[in-house]
Amino acid sequence: MADSKRLLVVSNRLPVSLSHATGEWITTRSAGGLATAMDPILKRTGGAWIGWSGAREQLPADILSKLREEQSAIPVRLAPEHGLRFYEGYANQAVWPLFHSFISRAKFVPENWSSYHDGNERFCDAIVEQYREGDRIWVHDYHLMLLPRMLRRRLPDAAIGFFLHIPFPSSDIFAVLPRGEMLLRGLLGADLVAFHTHSYLQHFRRSLRRLLGVESTLDCVEAAGRRIRIEALPIGIAPESLTSLLETAESKSHVDELRRRYEGSQILLAIDRLDYTKGLPERLRAFERLLRTHPELEGKVVLIQVAVPSRENIESYQELRAEVHELVSHINGKHGTAGWVPVNYIHRSLPPDEVAALYRIADVAWVAPLRDGMNLVAKEYVACKEDGNGVLILSTFTGAAAEMGEALLVNPMDEEDSAEAVFRAINMDAAEKRDRMGALRERVLRNDVYAWGDQFLSRLDEASAARTLPESTGAIPMPAAEFEQAFRTAPERKCRLLLLDYDGTLVPIADRPPDAVPGANIIELLTRLAADPRNRVFVISGRKSEDLERWLGNVPHLGLAPEHSARWRFPGSHEWHGHTAPHEWKQTVRPILQHYVDRTPGSFIEEKGFALVWHYRTADPEFGEWLATELVSMLEGMLADTELRAYRGKKIVEVKPPWANKGAIVPELLAAYPDTGFLCAMGDDRTDEDLFAALPKDAWSIFVGDGVTKAKYRLARPADVSRVLQRLVD
Ligand code: GDG
């Protein structure tokens, strides 16, 4: 890893707690997992940590410089009306529940969205202020998903990485989140976007396809003319920072004392923030069932539940606290005896050495979230069990479960399953415990948080170096003034040839092909363009002749080339040139396409003179893409001996002869107009690439939309095409 580059770590909160209780500001470095991971890296690379201080009031200048000098910490100033809402609003009441698949807990309030947006902008300002050329920027987590794009606009060359610490939900759930598309676009501003697991990565890819129509491969997305790397990089822990806490004499005597206190009991340990994702009520109910179904365990087992208070201003967290407290009293009241309290409930944050001591003495760690990005408690427990004498019970709905198969995996919603897993854990023989724990320890110690940090940064270096798409596939934004100048200054005696695609170029794509009727403005624009005696204007489209004739046949002096220019007519003439259509093959291919229509609600077949097309624009996107791949590979085999081929376009599969392609008309037109002094072609689809490829070198080739193209220039959407053409006729 190149350590010469500085690192700017960006997270919603700074790893420093500030208190002003005694009238004097006190700053304390937090010992959280992220700080433990980032601190050694920051020490090596230099740089700063940028985040919200949590303070409501403006920090005095001497504290700001103390933070900067002693902690390399730069507080972000959030507007007072946005501060708390930035943290507790959209991020924690919409994104957090939804990303953990708790749809019914998600609350969307428009004002919260503006605080989220504003918060991200304030972070952007703070980073731009600190940024020096060559720095790497590492943005953490769901509070800051708009930030990569904001940064990319202001620092186009910066290396920007993003890591999501929570799950990425399935695309069905993601689609429910208001402004979800903006979050996706926000993330695509980064060079590297990483998640804990492959499954989150796949969910992200599906949402990109479904909501933005952006395709991706296993590790890469090409969007907005850049290449973005996507990765699964599971976070680890810093094992020695925990185990070293157990080495002091004080800690050893604390461990001994705990052992004495719980002598004769099996200790089950649960440590969580008091959050509805962590499954506290479900675990307590499963524990109750265990006590009910195994009365012989009376006095022989104890559950230590540490519940760290969290987000206490949010109503659903207050309700959860009440529910948990009630369950604990119920269990202790019903099952406890004078000498035995079944649930030992601790509702506060413990000092780190006490947490480590609990890990050391626990016979079983019971990690039971209903959904969790990773869950570090599972890994920390394993790190503290040097003697192998412990069992990890782990919810399958944690990211950790993907790497910790030797744990007893449970579905925390299934009380019976969980209670039985606990019974099995406390009765497991020593050899099995050692085997399982040994395998877990080996992995947790090897894939530590330092390895995670190094990997992220080296991937970021690679990704930012490979960000630029090769020139032949990346078009630059269309220089409108230069284009207009070239059009106007074309030699007086020469003609100007304009080749325009229809759908997605002159008019926006419609869900149903018959709906893409041209508006009056387009008709007028084409009429004025074609009326200039120096212009030769052709609409070159995959549409059948009838469509183009019906919509554009009355525009005087407009050339038409339907069916990917398998046929064409010159401006001012009604005579068709080109091929005649063979039909026989359609009888064989149609039943195959029909089979796909039957399997795919919302899809249909379009018949053209030279082609049959399967359209699946309104079908479920995921299913549609999957079937399209299957259909093309099947047709490839079937059509191998014929002159037909299967092609994929935007939400279509088209079967046609290869000579029906838009590039084929270019030599015909150049022969018909040898005095061409200006040539431009515009299109948005894969079929337009044939046209671009056939153009002479000095032609203007213009691609409309995102994605890879052979064209030299790019416009964003059909409205921009109208604007550019309008300037030519004004
Ligand atoms: C997010 C994701 C992902 C707990 N109680 C005390 C205490 N802790 C420490 C634990 C552990 C940490 O807090 C909790 O980490 P988790 O991973 O369980 O959960 P989140 O806070 O929700 O973190 C999560 C993580 O990011 C990293 O990417 O794993 O899925 O939700 O380190 O030891 N520490 C102290 N006293 C306590 O009482 N000192």
Q: How would you portray this structure in words?
A:
The chain is an alpha/beta fold. Helices cover 42% and strands 19% of the residues. It is built from 25 helices and 30 strands. Helix 1 (33-45) crosses helix 17 and helix 10 packs across helix 13 (352-361). The longest helix has 21 residues, at 110-130. The site of GDP-alpha-D-glucose has 19 residues, from strand 12, strand 13, helix 13 and helix 14.
Short description:
Helices cover 42% and strands 19% of the residues. It is an alpha/beta fold.
Q: Any ligands, ions or cofactors bound here, and which?
A: GDP-alpha-D-glucose
Structural class: alpha/beta
Quote the beta fraction.
Answer: 15-25%
Q: What Rg do the Cα atoms give?
A: 32 Å
| Low-confidence segments | none
Report the principal-axis shape. elongated
What's the total number of strands?
Answer: 30
